[in-house]
Automatic annotation (TrEMBL):
Keyword Manganese tagged: no
Cofactor or coenzyme needed: Mg(2+)
Domain Ribulose bisphosphate carboxylase large subunit C-terminal: 128-398
Matching SUPFAM superfamilies: RuBisCo, C-terminal domain, RuBisCO, large subunit, small (N-terminal) domain
PROSITE patterns: RUBISCO_LARGE
Organism the protein comes from: Methanoplanus limicola DSM 2279
The protein's name in its UniProt record: Ribulose 1,5-bisphosphate carboxylase large subunit
Phylogenetic classification of the source organism: Archaea, Methanobacteriati, Methanobacteriota, Stenosarchaea group, Methanomicrobia
Residue span(s) of domain Ribulose bisphosphate carboxylase large subunit ferrodoxin-like N-terminal: 2-107
Record-level Gene Ontology MF annotations: magnesium ion binding; ribulose-bisphosphate carboxylase activity
Enzyme Commission code(s) on record: 4.1.1.39
InterPro entries xrefs: RuBisCO, RuBisCo_large_chain_AS, RuBisCO_lsu_C, RuBisCO_lsu_C_sf, RuBisCO_lsu_fd_N, RuBisCO_lsu_N_sf
Alphabetic keyword roster: Lyase, Magnesium, Metal-binding
Keyword Lyase: yes
Length: 401
């Protein structure tokens, strides 16, 4: 495969034939426009896009479009997106159009990918042999806590048994919780928890910021002791990930949140599916990526999610696999459904499902770990809860899915 192929679901406008609608996509994103051009020299034809396949599906059609590799600038993801995810979404001849997936040729996959990847993160935590799912938490409330109180919550979660703690997507460097002070407070408590428990715990600090400042912010976070960085990839852009993994060559994992993705991924007929977005995260260097849950609070198709998680882990240009993260509305009663649906190579994150435990954060973290242990021992959560108080109280509050 030497060119790039994109797959679109679309519904043409009632006065447009499906073949013409598919051609309109290929033309708009390569050498054409709405009319013929006097400036179109013969040699430009080599860069024409083409419709390779077209078939009916559901209420619409699926087209496979070929984009010649030469129209792409290797390594420039913003430019890639402008082609296969560009103007086409606004074309009036299409009532709806959704980018389903992309096949990138090797010469355009010129990225270094994750520095740690799933196996590297597992080695840091020490789960490479057991292969159990990781348990993570998002500090809640998502905004408002002071650095000192954030650190206290982190400590309680850490001693309770989580492997991973993260800022929420809207917390960056606000006055109520300045980043430098927060990192020092949280890492101080994490060091203490690590000393007490003998376990390694990662804390991902959200460094999302404008393009010209993100590297400086990452450097500052590392200077203050951060052992993981977090980026909101849709709002910051893929360039932010590349800046960290390729420019800075950071020596800590990068956790990737996808806040705002629902505007693109949620509608089954229009937008951008998670799959191409996930592929780009892998190329541009994310080590962990939120992809969704089977039973959580965000709506999406479980079938798509399962395949999205697989593509993060299967062979892809020799790049390290990305650790998929299930997050949003999880609690101990949902752990079984998540692991049986998504497998053990998953980070199970709970914010409300830990900090909302009747006995507080530490017990909430214990309950999440107990739910994972139950699964690993082949027991149901209810069976395990009989002699695990924290899990029992969690199930009493939230039930079992
Ligand atoms: C996330 O970052 O995925 C959400 O903040 C999850 O929060 P929740 O576990 O309370 O739904």
């Amino acid at each position: 495969m030497s060119d790039l192929f994109s797959y679109y679901y679309f519904r043409p406008r009632s006065d447009t034939k499906p073949e013409d609608a598919a051609i309109a996509i290929a033309e708009e994103e390569t050498t054409g426009t709405w009319t013929d051009l006097k400036t179109r020299k013969d040699y430009v034809k080599a860069l024409d896009g083409s419709v390779e396949e077209l078939h009916a599906e559901g209420d619409g059609y699926v087209a496979k479009i070929r984009y010649p590799a030469e129209i792409f600038e290797p390594g420039n993801i913003p430019q890639y997106l402008s082609v296969f995810a560009g103007n086409l979404f606004g074309l009036g001849r299409l009532d709806a159009v959704r980018l389903l997936d992309i096949d990138i040729p090797e010469k355009l996959a010129c990225f270094e990918g994750p520095l740690f990847g799933m196996k590297g993160v597992r080695r840091l935590i020490g789960t490479d042999k057991s292969g159990r799912p990781h348990v993570g938490t998002i500090i809640k409330p998502k905004v408002g806590l002071t650095p000192k109180d954030t650190a206290e919550v982190a400590y309680n979660a850490a001693v309770g048994g989580v492997d991973f703690i993260k800022d929420d997507e809207t917390l960056t460097d606000q006055a109520f919780c300045p980043m430098d002070e927060r990192i020092e407070a949280v890492m101080g408590k994490i060091d203490r928890a690590q000393g007490e428990t003998g376990r390694k715990i990662l804390y991902a600090v959200n460094i999302s910021d404008r393009a010209d400042r993100i590297v400086e912010r990452a450097e500052r976070a590392l200077e203050h002791g951060a052992n993981t960085l977090m980026v909101d990839v849709i709002t910051c852009g893929y360039s932010a990930l590349q800046a960290l993994s390729e420019e800075m060559k950071i020596n800590v994992p990068v956790h990737v949140h996808r806040t705002m993705h629902g505007a693109m991924t949620r509608m089954p007929e229009h937008g951008i599916a998670m799959r191409p977005l996930a592929r780009l995260v892998r190329l541009s260097g994310g080590d962990q990526l939120h992809t969704g849950t089977i039973s959580g609070k965000m709506g999406h198709s479980p079938e798509e999610l399962k395949r999205d998680n697989e593509i993060l882990k299967e062979d892809y240009f020799g790049l390290k696999p990305v650790f998929p993260v299930a997050s949003g509305g999880l609690h101990p009663g949902k752990v079984h459904a998540e692991i049986s649906g998504l497998g053990c190579d998953i980070v199970l994150q709970a914010g409300g499902g830990i900090h909302g435990h009747p006995d507080g954060t530490e017990s909430g973290a214990r309950a999440m770990r107990q739910a994972v242990d139950a699964y690993m021992e082949g027991l149901t959560a209810q069976e395990y809860a009989k002699d695990h108080t924290e899990l029992r109280k969690a199930l009493e509050k939230w039930g079992v899915r």
